[in-house]
Amino acid sequence: MNTGVRLVGVGVGPGDPELVTVKGIRRMREADVVLVPVMSHDEQGRAEATVRAHVDAARIRRVVFALNDRGGRSERRVRAWDEAARTVAHHFAEGATTVAFATIGDPNVYSTFTYLAQTVRDLVPRVEVETVPGVTAMQDLAARSGSVLVEGTEPLTLLPVTGGVERLRGALASEGTVVAYKFGRFAGEVADALRDAGRLGEAVYGARLGLAGEEIAPMTELDGRPLPYLSTLVAPARRDIRGGKL
To answer: Which is it for strands 231-235 and 215-218: parallel, antiparallel or unpaired?
Structure first.
């Protein structure tokens, strides 16, 4: 049932404006306002840089999130969710019928949009929430590096490395492809885990995908330095013969 107001989470991909879907562009252009997450009001974020390639800048508004907070469900992070939700509610109160929120990657994969939508529902119970899928960093890295993510009956494990590498070590013990997000500050430990699992040789990483200064390289070339926070790892499954996993 149409309730009159709609919040749309739009995935805008990993950073390359050409990887935004046609539907995502259309839904942002149809919206009364497009919100973009930033760490401060005077700093353009990755999502905003992508959105500006497709949407009139006059309809873009920044909302501050604790994007660099690594303290879990911290007071600062919760406060940012609440303030962002009040911003959405304010736009509805001012007459907006559709508010879009642009998020890097996909709005249903490790996205700030999840928490925003939950909070907006509490403030505006009649709101309809919609999401438009986006290209993920693992898809972009796989395409750019020539890495096949899954074949046949192989599983795919995706996990963030924000608190250490123990869960990653467990995943690497499997035979399937492992993708790790947000592993930059643990890059050296991640390389050690890959080496211990015998999976260093095929693994690749990507940093600043779609942006100036991007890096896409084998993990064997990592020289021990830390990488940017939003770095992605793909460790492909072990494959011996063509079609062997069917």
So the answer is: unpaired
Biggest alpha carbon–alpha carbon distance for the chain: 61
**Residues 246, 233: Cα–Cα separation, whole Å:** 25
Helix or strand run (H / E) with residue 132 = strand 128-132
- Residue 198 has which token pair? 């015998």
pTM of the model: 0.90
The answer for residues whose C-beta is within 8 angstroms of residue 69's C-beta and 6 or more apart is: 76, 77
| Residue positions counted in the chain | 246
Nearest to 99 by CA among 26, 5, 4, 21: 5
**Helix or strand run (H / E) with residue 142:** helix 137-145
Phi-psi region of 232 (alpha: psi -120 to 50; beta: other; left: phi over 0): beta
pLDDT tens-place values along the chain, 246 residues long: 446 899 999 999 999 999 999 999 999 999 999 999 988 788 888 899 999 999 999 999 999 876 555 656 667 778 888 999 999 999 999 999 999 999 999 999 999 999 999 999 999 999 999 999 999 999 999 999 999 999 999 999 999 998 889 999 999 999 899 999 999 889 999 999 999 999 999 999 999 998 888 999 999 998 878 898 889 999 999 888 777 676
